[in-house]
Design brief:
The mean pLDDT is 95. The protein has strands at 3-7, 10-13, 21-25, 33-39, 45-51, 58-60, 68-73, 78-83, 92-99, 104-105, 109-114. Strands 2, 4, 5, 6, 9, 10 and 11 form a seven-stranded mixed beta sheet that branches. Strands 1-3-8-7 form a four-stranded antiparallel beta sheet, with no helix packed on it. The chain is built from no helices and eleven strands. The protein is mainly β.
Length: 115
């Protein structure tokens, strides 16, 4: 079983660069991809980025390509999302997800971008 706890986010100005983080609690030997998802006001939850266990494969959705960077540290058991050049449309609740057995979600953190 995996537990995820996000931190960071809050109210930011457009153009700022917050770096939310997700702490991972799991059993030794667990191997799984991690992801960041978001739910914007009035919209469905959508994937933002997926990073493989080794970190050598990262997939970003088009709206964040070139602006967001995801990284993981399996020793520290964290995954971070560097968010650059934020836009108002990035306002959403951001969730950390572990593609484990079973899949697990963090509680989510609010990121509100003020233009």
């Amino acid at each position: 079983q995996v537990q995820l706890v996000e931190s960071g986010g809050g109210f930011v100005q457009a153009g700022e660069s917050p770096r939310p983080s997700c702490a991972v609690l799991d059993r030794p030997g667990s191997v799984y991809d991690l992801g960041w998802y978001r739910r914007a006001p009035g919209k469905e939850r959508e994937v933002v980025a997926i990073i493989s266990w080794t970190g050598d494969r990262i997939i970003y959705v088009d709206p964040v390509k070139g602006r967001f960077t995801v990284a993981r540290d399996n020793t520290k058991k964290t995954v971070t999302q560097q968010m650059n050049r934020l836009k108002a449309e990035d306002t959403a609740i951001y969730y950390c997800y572990a593609d484990a057995e079973p899949g697990e979600w963090g509680q989510g953190i609010q990121v509100t971008v003020s233009s």
